[in-house]
Predict the structure.
Amino acid sequence: MLATEIQEFAFAWYPVFGVVFMAVLLFIFVKLLGSTVGKTKPEYVKASDTAPVLWEDVQGVDAAKDELMDVAEWLREPDRFAALGAQPPRGVLLYGPPGTGKTMLARAVAAQAGVDFFAASGSSFVEMFVGRGAARIRRLFKEARKSGRAVIFIDEIDAVGGHRSSSGGDGGSGEREQALNQLLVELDGFEKDPGTVIVIAASNTVHKLDEALLRPGRFDRQVLVAPPDRDGREAILRAHAKRKPLAADLDLTDVARKTTGMTGAQLANALNEGAIIAGRAGRFAMTRDDLDEALLRQSVGSQQARRLSTKERLIVAYHEAGHALCRKLVCADPPEILSVVARGGALGFVAHSPQEDSYMESRDELLAEVVCLLGGRAAEEEVMGESYSGASSDLARVHKVCKQMVTEFGMGVALDHDGPPPIAMPTEDYSVSDATRREVDLASMTLAREAHRQARALLAANRDCLDDIAGTALERETLSREELDEIFARHELRALVDSRGSGAALVAMTREKRE
Ligand code: ADP
Ligand code: MG
Ligand code: ZN
């Protein structure tokens, strides 16, 4: 009797245990899922977790700093501006190439104003589960408002704020849409609740962003963070070289001169790489050669051990000599270094660096650039009477520049300016007719042909110098700017017109010489 009672009792409870057991399992599972999916990417980082970036640390982007200074001041003393009836800035969009210092600037604003800094990446708001990203945005803004005055930094905002149309049809677009809408709601929410929170976002381009984000009251302040100019580069180099001992021969002013187009991140990297090279060589200070090597690794690649045949070495030497000589003859910027040591994917290379930062180029300058690009191939033809596949990347660049001259700059007219009126012919536009496409091809081929003719004429007229460069390069492998200048000085260079060598004038001069 008792036994059966117990039995019945136990029997009756089995399903309950089962359900409880299942519930516990389910609970643990959900917890685990929640923590792995939700916590793999941290929601945001508060600046107090990391070392602050100071206003003085950011160099070479003075225009952007000027524009951000009043944001920082407003954050520091909001009442002063409110008393004047000034509307608080809401969202600032920093745009520019990667590595120019956008993240740094955002952090510096927070440090300068002495407020909290919350950083998150746009991509962390686009999650697998619909609604999660939006919830994250809500939490981020709530936390920031809680700290009173704060900077919220959203890196790679394109991930959430890209054109809605461009996301058309992809699976995650519902989630993205929700995240974007939430972001808009939060930005607009400042209106009712003007806490002192400023949102700074970063993007590589401003064109790809949804217009809704750029409307007044949202990211209505757009600040370009451009690669630094020469003085800017020097300032960045000096800032990053502070705790790096430099040898006496390393002149940062000279480094700034020859690093046109490089961003702060690239300069910082090069200095670091240079220090590593010096360290591995057992030196106590970074020399000019160490940093030059670091810069070359960054721009061309590391040295490669390639075994070339004697003939191949000769071809490479003449090819590079052709580039260098053409550059000396028609470009404002002389060759800086010539090397027949393989680096990265190249068997040899000639590097040059602009004397000045320039923001536009004339037709003659662009054409001169094409002449230099074709100098390698022209030398092969001139000396070997044959052409080689090594010139393929030069030719790809030639094609690109010539096409750009025709389609973007309206420079597809004949040299004597008798041709059709200069118009830019967009080829990416679907409405362009086949006939126009053909014209573009013809016009860019005419430019390339003209440049090729000039390169051949230049090398033929200066064959003695070409032989000298190639011979010396085979002997020494790498020629510095000084060594190249020595060679140039040994020869009476023909067709050397004014520093900016006009293409038309050049050909005339070589013809004169021959007659
Ligand atoms: P971005 O956000 O524009 O991609 P970052 O701010 O992340 O660039 O910069 C990356 C690194 O490069 C910085 O940590 C810093 O070491 C260096 N750097 C970039 N720009 C500058 C600059 N303007 N001044 C000083 N250092 C810079
Ligand atoms: Mg960044
Ligand atoms: Zn080449």
